[in-house]
Amino acid sequence: MAVKKDTSSYNNESITSLKGADRVRLRPSVIFGSDGLEGCEHSVFEILSNSIDEAREGYGKKIEVTRYKDKSVSVKDFGRGIPVDFNKNEERFNWELVFCELYAGGKYSNNTGENYEYSLGLNGLGTCATQYSSEYMDAIIYRDGFKYSLHFEKGENVGGLTKEETTLRSTGTFIKWRPDMEVFTDISIPLSYFQDVMKKQAIVNKGISFILYDEETKESFTYLYENGIRDYIVELNDEKAFSSVQYFENETSGRDREDKPEYKLKFQIAFAFNNDVNSLQYYHNSSFLEYGGSPDKAVKSSFVSAIDKYIKNSNLYKKDEKKITFNDVEDSLVLIINSFSTITSYENQTKKSITNKFIQEAITDFLKEKLEIYFVENKLEADKIVNQILANKRSRETAEKTRVSIREKLTGKMDMNNRVEKFVNCRTKDVSRRELYIVEGDSAMGACKLGRDAEFQAIIPVRGKILNCLKADYDRVFKSDIIIDLLKVLGCGVEIKSKHNSQINSFDLSQLRWDKIIICTDADVDGYQIRTLILTMLYRLVPTLIEQKKVYIAESPLYEITSGKNTYFAYTEKEKTEITAGIKGKYTIQRSKGLGENQPEMMWETTMNPKTRRLILVLPEDVEKTKEKFELLLGDNLKGRKEFIEEEGYKFLDLIDIS
Questions:
Q1: Considering just the CA atoms, what is the radius of gyration of the chain in Å?
Q2: Cα torsion at 148, 154, 155, 158 (round to 10°)?
Q3: H-helix or E-strand containing 176?
Q4: Which long-range contacts (CB under 8 A, 24 or more apart) does 566-574 make?
Q5: Cα-based distances in Å from 35 to 154, 340, 536
Q6: Nearest-CA neighbor of 390 among 329, 335, 334?
Q7: Is the CB of residue 231 less than 8 Å from the CB of residue 225?
Q8: What is the H or E stretch that residue 249 is in?
Q9: Closest to 334 in 3D by CA, of 250, 240, 270
Q10: For residue 415, what is the DSSP state?
Q11: Is pLDDT above 70 for 593?
C-alpha cells in the first residue's frame, strides 16, 4: 500500500529568521568566512580595523594590542572615542547601534567626504559581529570629558551604559573580549598572527606605531615604518638587488561604470628587482589583499607591457622567440601597492580581493607610463632588469623542455627488465626487502649476478664514466643514458630545487622501489672516483634518499689472507695486522682483486650476504661539508684530484658514518 507523504510540517510558518546575536553566533562563517581559527582571527582584525581608521584620519598615532594567556584580546587606541551616547536622529543610543546592530556605523557617507574617506571598515558589521561572537566583551571609551563603560556576555548587554565624568584629557577606545568557543571551533590565535598583521599594518600606515604585548611570553613588539612601504622595500632589498628602489604615488578619481558614482582613489607603489627575494603584496584601505584582484591584474599587465616594449626596441629577443610572461618578471620582483578608495568592491566581507574596474585601469595606465620613463632615464638599470628577465624566461623554457623530456623518459609503461640495458631485477615485490646494487662495469656485474640472492637483490651496472652532476647543467645531466637508466630503476623521479627549474621536480618517495641502494665499486683509485660520481648524482638529483637513510656503500676487502684451508678478509691495514698476528703457522697475503675477478662465493660472503657483508650508511650530517668535499673531489684540477684519491681516497669515507 502506498504511503502518503506528510507535507503539512512545511508551511507558511516554517520560514524563520535569525534575530539578535544568533545572526552571527549560529552562522559565523557568513560574516567571518569561517567558523574555525581563520574566522576567529578575522574577528580580531575587525576591531583593529576601527582603531586603524581613526589613526589614519589623524586621531592618535599609536595602537596597542594585548594577547592574553586565557586567549582574550584587547585593542586600545587614542582616537576620538566611539560615540556611544543618545542619538536623536535614530532615537536610540549609539552604543546599541555600534555594538548590537549589524549594518550600522559612521562610514557609509565616506564618498561625500564627511567621515573616514579611506576606511577599512565599510560594512558596519565588524564591532557588532565580533561582540556577538564573544564570550564576553568590555568596552571603555573616553570622549567629551566622560568615561563610558559597557559589558556584554554572549552577545547580550549586561547593565546598560555607565557614564561618569573624568579629568583624563586624552580620548580613545579600549575594547577587551574573549572569542567564544561556542561560536568558533578554535580560538587559540598564535602570536605569529598578531605579529604578521601588525607589521603589515605598520608598513601601509606610515608613521603609526603598532605595539603588541604578549602576556604568555611577556614580550613586547613595536612596529613603525616612518616612510611606509618605501622603508619596507628597502628592508627587503638585500645585497642581491640589481636595481634601486622605485617609489611612485598618485591621486585621481573615476567610476567603474558610466552610471555609477565617481569616487576618489589614491595609491602608492614601491618596487625593486632582486635575484634573492621576490614578493608581491597588495593592500587596499590597509586590508591585505591575499588574492589581489584589481591591483594584481594592473601590475601584471603594466610590467609585461613596459618590459616587452623595451626588449623589442632594444632588439634583445632572438629570432622567433616568444615574448616574456609575468612569471619571468615575478621571479625577480619585490613590489608593494598600497591603495585607498572611497568606494570599494570587495569580493566578500573578508576583504581578500577587490574587483573595481576603475582601480585596475588607473593603476595600469599610471604604472605603464612611470615604467617607461624609469627605463629611459635609467638605461643601465633597465638593461640589467631586462637581461635578467630574459634569463628567467629562457631558464623557464629550458626547464619546461627538460621536464617534458624527463617525463617522456621516466614515465609511461615501465618494464625495467626490457627498457633498462643490462638491469637484472629481483623476484620479490616486497619493497621493504628489495636491494639495488649499483656496480662498476660489466665484469663486476657478472660476479655480483652469480653471487647474489636473486630473491631480493637486483643489479644495475654503471657503463663507462658517469657524468659529474655537480658541475653539469640539468639539460646535460638528463641527456646521460646512464643517469636516466638509474632514475628509471629507482622509480621515485627527481628533485629540482633551483629557482627557475622547479617545474622539472617530480620526486615522490612513495614510488621508490628499493629499501636499500648499495653502491658497489672496487677499492682502488678508479673505484673511489666512480663511487664519488654516483654519490654526487644521488646527492644532486635525489637527496631525500640520503636523508631517509636509503643509500649505502658496500665495503670491499683490501686483502685476502690464506692459511691452510682458512681464508680471512681484511678491510683495512689495521685488520690485516690483527688477523696475521692471530694466525699460528704460515699464511699468504694477496691484494684483493677487482670485483669482476672475484668468485661468486667470495662476492656473496664479503659483499652481498646480509650476515657477513659490511655496509656503510651514507649520512650527510653536514651538507655544506659534504658539498665542499665533492667540490674538492670533482673540481677542475684533474691531476690534483687523482693525486688526492691515490693518497687519501679512503678518507672520502669521512663523509659518512658506519652503521
A1: 35
A2: -40
A3: strand 172-179
A4: 569/605, 569/606, 571/614
A5: 16, 29, 50
A6: 329
A7: yes
A8: strand 246-254
A9: 270
A10: -
A11: no
Is the pLDDT assigned to residue 467 strictly greater than 80?
A: no
Q: What is the rounded CA–CA span in Å between residue 265 and residue 358? A: 9
| Cell numbers placing 289 | 589583499
Query: What integer pLDDT is reported at residue 122 of this predicted model?
Result: 40
What are phi and psi for residue 46, nearest 5 degrees? Answer: -60, -40
Top-confidence residue, 277 or 177? 177
Cell of 493: 623521479
For the ranges 327-336, 366-375, 378-387, 552-561, the lowest mean pLDDT is seen at 552-561
CA atoms within 13 A on the CB side of 426: 24
Mutual orientation of helices 481-490 and 525-541 as an angle, nearest 10°? 60
Record the cell numbers describing residue 498, joined without a space.
633551483
Neighbours of 217 (CB within 10 A): 10
Distance (Å, rounded) from C-alpha 211 to C-alpha 55?
A: 14
CA distance 423 to 407: 21
Q: What are phi and psi of 613, to 5 degrees?
A: -70, 165
- E strand spans, 446-557: 457-462, 516-520, 551-554
Helix or strand holding residue 134 (H, E) = strand 134-143
For residues 617 and 176, which has the higher predicted lDDT (pLDDT)? Answer: 176
Fill in the DSSP letter of residue 34: -
What are phi and psi for residue 310, nearest 5 degrees?
Answer: -65, -40
Cβ(140)–Cβ(149) under 8 Å?
Answer: yes
User: Which one-letter DSSP state was computed for residue 106?
Assistant: S
Secondary structure element (H or E) that encloses residue 288, with its range = strand 287-288
Report which of 280, 270, 225 is spatially closest to residue 247, judged by C-alpha positions.
Answer: 270
Long-range CB contacts (within 8 A, 24+) of 513-516: 513/431, 513/434, 513/436, 513/489, 514/431, 514/434, 514/435, 514/436, 514/458, 514/490, 514/550, 515/431, 515/432, 515/433, 515/434, 515/435, 515/550, 516/434, 516/435, 516/436, 516/550, 516/552, 516/615
Among 91, 99, 86, 106, smallest CA distance to 20 is for: 99
| Cα 576 to the center of its chain, rounded Å | 53
Q: Is 583 exposed, middle or buried (0-12, 13-18, 19+ CB in 10 A)?
A: middle
Which residue, chain included where needed, has cell 629481483?
426
Alpha-carbon distance 508 to 548, whole Å?
13
- Number of neighbours of residue 300 by Cβ within 10 angstroms: 18
Question: Which among 296, 277, 288 is positioned nearest to 205, based on CA atoms?
Answer: 288
**Residue 619 pLDDT grade (very low, low, confident, very high; cuts 50, 70, 90):** confident
Dihedral of the alpha carbons of 358, 208, 241, 270, in degrees to the nearest 10: 20
Q: What is the dihedral of CA 228, 231, 237, 239, to 10 degrees?
A: 180
Average pLDDT in the 621-640 region? 57
DSSP letter (8 states) at residue 274: B
Mean pLDDT of 226-243: 88
> Residue 206: how many CB atoms within 10 A of its CB?
18
Report whether 285 contacts 119 (CB < 8 A): yes
